[in-house]
Amino acid sequence: MKNQTITKIAVLTSGGDSPGMNAAIRAVVRACAFYEVACFGVYRGFQGLIEGDFKELGPRDVKYTISKGGTMLKTARSKDFMSEEGRKKAFEQIQKQGIQALIVIGGDGSFTGAYRFSREFNFPVIGVPGTIDNDIYGTSHTIGFDTALNTVIEVVDKIRDTATSHKRMFFVEVMGRDAGHIALNAGIGAGAEEILIPEEDIGLPKLLEKLKRSKASGKSSCIVLVSEGDKIGKNVFELSEYVQENLPEYDVRVSVLGHLQRGGSPTCFDRVLASRLGVKAVELLLQNKEGVMVGLQNQQVVTVPLEKAIKGSSAIDEELIRISDILSI
Ligand code: ATP
């Protein structure tokens, strides 16, 4: 399939949705139109690829989508694509439609599937990082991360209003099973007193000590931002019960932000990022480059081999942990 002039590209979104995915689809569709390449949207991620759920998209089909959250192509977690048989069916559908390259917008799971597919069938694939978790190696930002951060700080600011009025402590759980990027960045942005992330287990005694110190310093409220995957307590409710028992002077409450972090209109940052990465993905394919993820490093669009993006981990910024410790005095 490789090294032929590309005239037909397909694009899909896969895994968890993130704000800005529509802006990325729009950029791919319009760049294809600009370079006079046919563009097919695949509905429901890899599952739609297996079932041949494709539709040709022109530049007007993506109008008014740049400001919309979610993904107009829908997304899915496809069990069938995990098997060789499923991927073979997907390849047959692609051949039937005459598609010569695939752009996958999603997280590391989606990139793993895309990479396997490209190796098995010698098929050109480009990855565009779309996930709110920012947990992909090789890019400083994934599409949707900035919007999720802004959503979290808006909500935490509101929780702070009521926490201060009642002199309460709130444990606020945010998304991030394996990575604490949302908790750490939004925690600093919202002025959280403590931030608990999967990458660092400070231990319960130290947490209690820090919370006592915070109370003694005259603070009238306390916000602890907790990543879903933090290692210190079993879950945010058990954690808050433990703190309530050991620090009875506090009135402790819990708020789990959940899926609202995935939705909403993307920020300007995410729209611009998605636009840059979507256009670059198409241009790379037209230059016969493939097997890479497009990402952002030092504000520049870069390419990273898909294999590296999958295998590497996105380390937490230790400097941010230090900043948070200083500012929570
Ligand atoms: P997010 O991090 O936002 O959840 P993700 O892309 O990591 O996004 P996953 O559910 O891990 O989401 O993966 C999406 C889909 O990619 C899976 O449902 C499956 O179809 C495909 N996929 C994941 N891992 C593999 C794999 N090892 N082999 C083949 N396909 C895979």
From TrEMBL:
This is ATP-dependent 6-phosphofructokinase. Mg(2+) binds at residue 108. Belongs to the phosphofructokinase type A (PFKA) family. ATP-dependent PFK group I subfamily. Prokaryotic clade 'B1' sub-subfamily. It is an enzyme of class 2 (transferase). Its EC number is 2.7.1.11. GO terms for cellular component: 6-phosphofructokinase complex. Residues 8-285 form the Phosphofructokinase domain. The keyword Membrane does not apply. Pathway: Carbohydrate degradation; glycolysis; D-glyceraldehyde 3-phosphate and glycerone phosphate from D-glucose: step 3/4. Homotetramer. Its main location: cytoplasm. It catalyses: beta-D-fructose 6-phosphate + ATP = beta-D-fructose 1,6-bisphosphate + ADP + H(+). Its cofactor is Mg(2+). One of its GO terms (molecular function) is ATP binding. Allosterically activated by ADP and other diphosphonucleosides, and allosterically inhibited by phosphoenolpyruvate. The lineage of its organism: Bacteria, Pseudomonadati, Bacteroidota, Flavobacteriia, Flavobacteriales.
